[in-house]
Amino acid sequence: MKRTYVVTGAGSGIGKKTAELLKEQGHEVIGVDIKNSDIIADLSTPEGRNALPDLVAEKSGGSIDALIACAGVSAPAPITMAVNFFGTVATLEKLQPLLAKGTDPRVAVISSVASTFPYDGDLVELALSGDETATLKFAGAEEKAQLLYSSSKAALSRWIRRNSIKEEWAGSGILMNMIGPGLVETPMTKALIEDEEQMKGLKQMMPTPQGRFAQPEDVANLLIFLASPENSHMVGQMMYIDGGGEATVRGDTIW
């Protein structure tokens, strides 16, 4: 059955591959990104976020069946919190009414295995309070820089756990889940992969027993499943797709 999907971050990397695979399967795809997409929107800004629902409604005819949120950045700067947390949450909230009108509506969000790494607890709580101005100011402190990515993903993961079970989501038949990729070979990670010193530290923090990094298609296929009607009863879950890193580091301690 042909479905209508919105894919954020569709201009490159995982989002681009996800959009391509969905189109190959015969679905209608509305891509969102800051360039090279059907809808051009900067999700780091209130203006970009506020324009999104009307633009999507216009292109979709008023309803969508699934949202796959891939837009994200990894930078030692406040924009990481702006896009990864506030931009994603705004996208979910603003497109919820269009999802509620869809058939078998689903949401799949990219979090990260980094959500299990050390993060700044105060920054996470501030983000979850919804005060973006204060959060970005706090995130601008130099000593916060290296914890911004993990903090943004920890905050996002908590938001999804808290909200996916609410009446406007699961109670309305909108099943929302997330995935936790490890390192994926994309344009965003190219510089990191080529930096031997950084990679040495990352491999110690997150080993990969499978012996290879993920490719965008590996992650896209999981996102597509979560956003499909075949995912019929999963709500608020994190699925790690990291070659065994999370299982190696945390083992069975989470139980």
Task: Describe the protein in words.
The chain has 255 residues and is of the alpha/beta class. It contains 10 helices and 7 strands. The chain has a 7-stranded parallel beta sheet with strand order 3-2-1-4-5-6-7, sandwiched between helices. Helix 1 (13-24) links the parallel strand 1 (4-8) and strand 2. Helix 2 (46-60) runs parallel beside helix 3 (79-100), helix 3 packs parallel to helix 6 and helix 4 packs across helix 6.
The total strand number stands at: 7
The coarse overall form would be globular
Strand order of the largest sheet: 3-2-1-4-5-6-7
Chain oligomer state: single chain
Low-confidence stretches: none
Q: Give the averaged pLDDT, no decimals.
A: 95
User: Helix share of residues?
Assistant: 40-55%
SSE pattern, N- to C-terminal = EHEEHEHEHHHEHHHEH
Q: What class would the helix/strand composition place it in?
A: alpha/beta
The percentage of residues in β strands lies in 5-15%
Annotation field: number of helices = 10
Distance between the termini: 39 Å
As a whole number of angstroms, the C-alpha radius of gyration is 17 Å
Largest sheet: 7 strands, parallel
